[in-house]
Specification:
Layout (H helix, E strand, L loop, with lengths): L4 E2 L5 E4 L2 E4 L7 H24 L2 H18 L11 H15 L5
């Protein structure tokens, strides 16, 4: 799969001719990978809920997708308009909300 094309300012990626907000490049790679993993799990859960016609599970899964995308900087306040502290707080809050507690 080809790497998506970024706009010159780096704020967006162009996929199939559509411009989408890029993930925050300042998220440390380990945390960004964890957030992407949580995002993909939530997306799989949306599909499973749709197949099961479980509206409550679908609502929960879609909320987790939204939360992960906010944490990655793809939704909400644009990451390039946030201070470094606000950016760190955004992705850390997302991990705290989405990641299961460690035992």
């Amino acid at each position: 799969m080809a790497e998506p094309e970024h706009t010159p300012d780096g704020h967006f990626v162009v996929i199939n001719g559509r411009r989408r907000r890029a993930s925050d490049p300042e998220i440390p790679s380990e945390q960004a990978a964890r957030l992407r993993s949580l995002l993909m799990a939530a997306r799989r859960d949306v599909g499973a809920a749709l197949r099961a016609q479980d509206t409550e599970a679908e609502r929960d899964a879609r909320a987790r997708v939204h939360r992960a995308k906010i944490a990655l900087g793809e939704r909400g306040t644009p990451w390039w308009e946030q201070t470094p502290g606000q950016r760190r707080q955004r992705w850390q809050d997302g991990l705290d909300a989405l990641a299961p507690p460690s035992t």
